[in-house]
Amino acid sequence: MRTTLIINDELLKAAKHRAAERKCSVSAIVNEALRTTLGEKRSGGDAPQFQMPKYRGTGDVIDTPPAAFDALVSQDELETLRG
Questions:
Q1: How far apart are the first and last CA of the chain?
Q2: Cα-based distances in Å from 77 to 35, 47, 63, 81, 82
Q3: Is residue 32 within 8 Å of residue 40, measured between CB atoms?
Q4: Contact 25/19 with Cβ under 8 angstroms?
Q5: What does pTM read for this prediction?
Q6: What pLDDT, in 10s, does the model give residues 10-24?
Q7: Which among 2, 23, 47, 69 has the fewest CB atoms less than 10 Å away?
C-alpha cells in the first residue's frame, strides 16, 4: 500500500544509511521499525525458540543467580585494577 509520511530529516537520513548497509529499500527499514514498535511478528516464519545449551562435564552443578554474577564481575574487575 502506498502512503505519504512526513519523516524527520535525521530519521530519514538514518533509515537511508541503514538501508544501504543492508542492501534493501527504505520501505523495508520503515516496515521493520513499525513491526518492532507495534510488536508484530515478522512474516516468513518465526525464529526458533532459544534453548540454553547444556554441557556435560564433571563436577557439581552450581546454580548462580544473576545478582551473584554481578558481584563476581565486580570482584573480578577490582582484582584486575589492583593488579
A1: 62
A2: 39, 36, 22, 6, 9
A3: no
A4: yes
A5: 0.46
A6: 999 999 999 999 999
A7: 2
DSSP string over the chain: --------HHHHHHHHHHHHHHTS-HHHHHHHHHHHHHTPPPSS-PPPPP-------SS------HHHHHHHHHHHHHHHHH-
Q: What is the pLDDT of residues 29-80, one digit of tens each?
A: 999 999 888 886 655 556 677 777 777 777 777 777 888 878 888 887 777 7
Euclidean distance between CA atoms 43 and 39, whole angstroms:
12
